[in-house]
Amino acid sequence: MNSNIIGSLLWLIFILLSTSTHMIIKSLTGEVDFIITLFSRFVYSLPLLFFIAYISRKKLLFQINNWKNIILRSLFGFVTMIMVFSSLQLIPIGLTTALAQSSAIYVTLLSPFLLGEKIGLIRWTAVIIGLVGVFLMIDPISIIRETSNLSSLGLYLAFGSALTHAGLAIILRKIGKTEHPSTTALIHNFITSTVIILAILAFGTKFYGVKGNHGIEILIEPSLLLYILILLGFLGSLVQYLMAQSYKYAEATILVTLRYLAIPLAAILGYLIWSEVPTINQLIGGIVVIISCLLITYREIKLKN
To answer: Which DSSP category does 65 fall into?
Structure first.
């Protein structure tokens, strides 16, 4: 089988599992304290990530060449995850996904300053078009007039996640040249897990996010919710592994194009499960963002060829 086909299939599974983790997080809103959900996503992902790193690198599984970039990767990754997970509790899953996927627009905006890349007329046009799409989805005028039925905090968090994800993407470009992906995934989750555990010990589980009916006691008593939290962490580790493996087999330009399938998938599931119906502005804005990001991707392909 062609390597691009294998990589694309792995990427499609990655998209399905990533969307599944978002659905679990959304479904746990009001049931489990947000911090416990965050704890489970990172801590329960460690065993599989450790196993993968050990199989891949043996005694070198903790070897890092540039700790500064790894710390930055963990910081941006953690903040991005907090914003995405928080917004899922407040606004429709399709809207969160669409806003988060707009990160390619901000990568293009930042790349001249952080990577020294030149941006031509076509990509600048795509950026402007994309920003119009983001404007339509957020609809700040209705927020100012207080006519929006959506959580303004949820919208800002989803928008912010796209910005921090853009920073993360730029950092990952640098890390990819010096570090092994299985080691960076393991170290990132270990650092994040440590931070969350220390935060819980210091502040408890109700200092941030939507409070639920269950706190830290859910981690001690066997129950369906506990098994769902463990599944969340396991799926999270699979998502990171499949993402790395996809890039191993398929060209990045193919995978970047396929990533936008997550937007209609999330919107459809949001409608079927939570009866979330997007507005005309959100639909048009989402389509405009997808077109903008695909135009950016197309231009990058042309420049590389």
So the answer is: S
**Residue 216 near residue 59 (C-beta atoms within 8 A):** no
Q: CB count, 10 Å around CB of 221?
A: 9
Which residue range is the domain that position 60 belongs to? 3-304
Q: What angle do CA 272, 274, 280 make, to 5 degrees?
A: 80
Burial group, residue 198, by CB count within 10 angstroms (0-12, 13-18, 19+): exposed
Total domains in the chain come to 1
- Whole-angstrom distance, CA of residue 246 vs CA of residue 181: 12
> What is the percent of the chain with per-residue pLDDT over 70, rounded to a whole number?
93
The b-or-e profile of 250-286 (16+ CB within 10 A means b, else e) is beeebbbbbbbbbbebbbebbeeeeebebbeebbebb
**pTM of the full predicted structure?**
0.87
pLDDT in tens, 171-199: 887 887 788 888 999 999 999 999 999 99
- Please return the burial class of 210, using the count of CB atoms within 10 Å of its CB with bins 0-12, 13-18 and 19+: middle
Q: 32 φ, ψ to 5°?
A: -125, 140
Cα 244 from Cα 252, distance rounded (Å): 11
Residue 63 has what DSSP assignment?
Answer: -
Dihedral (C-alpha) 38, 23, 97, 108: value to the nearest 10 degrees? 50
CB 215 within 8 A of CB 33: yes
pLDDT in tens, 238-263: 998 888 788 777 766 667 677 788 88
Residue that is written with structure tokens 């996904």 in the block: 97
